Amino acid sequence: MEKNKKFKIDKLYQNYSDEIFDLAKNHSNNIFFNSSEWHASIVHKALVKYAEKDLTIFCGNMLSDISNNDEYCNYMTSFLKEDKSRTVYIIFNKYSEVFLHTKIAKIFSEFPAQVKIKTYAGEVKYKGKNVHFTVVDNRAFRFETDIEKKMAFGSFNQPDTAAALKISFDKLFYSFLTKPIFL
Q1: DSSP letter assigned to residue 25
Q2: 8 A C-beta contact, residue 52 and residue 85
């Protein structure tokens, strides 16, 4: 019985992964949803794998396995190595110096001209709730509406929504409210 349950979970994971990577590869404008940490991990991998120019990330601290698994780290390394004009801008709102010892921080430290990280002592809210978000190439986004449960929605091709999130990110990133983190 337990073996059968694991098979079903693995199959669900693979089906969700296949669907998300297909949407990303084809720059689909369909809305997708995620409702767990493993869904979030899949979506973040797809966002990085199919990014072409830039990533902007507003998140807690990048301490979880979502950002520190081998596959995500390999996609991020490839993204940054492939083209020196590519950028990653990040704002942490729950920064911890533990981040400096993570796999992803080590990767970012290899690309100081391309990766800029700041910390912010506040929160970003949507409908009264704290949110996190990622924007890729001003067209793709993932918008996390429940940080604890990793509930989010997004699309790999909705430039209007992606641009609005990017404008909000940039206003905060370049404001006096954020402080740089040096790797």
Answers
A1: H
A2: no
**Pair of tokens at residue 1:** 């019985």
Q: Encode pLDDT of 15-58 as tens digits.
A: 999 999 999 999 999 999 999 999 999 999 999 999 999 999 99
Distance CA 123, CA 131 (A): 8
Q: Report CA torsion sign: 26, 49, 178, 60.
A: positive
Torsion of CA 129, 95, 175, 90, to 10 degrees: -90
- CA dist 40 and 133 (Å) reads 11
pTM: 0.93
Alpha helix ranges (H) inside 50-181:
65-68, 70-82, 103-109, 159-173
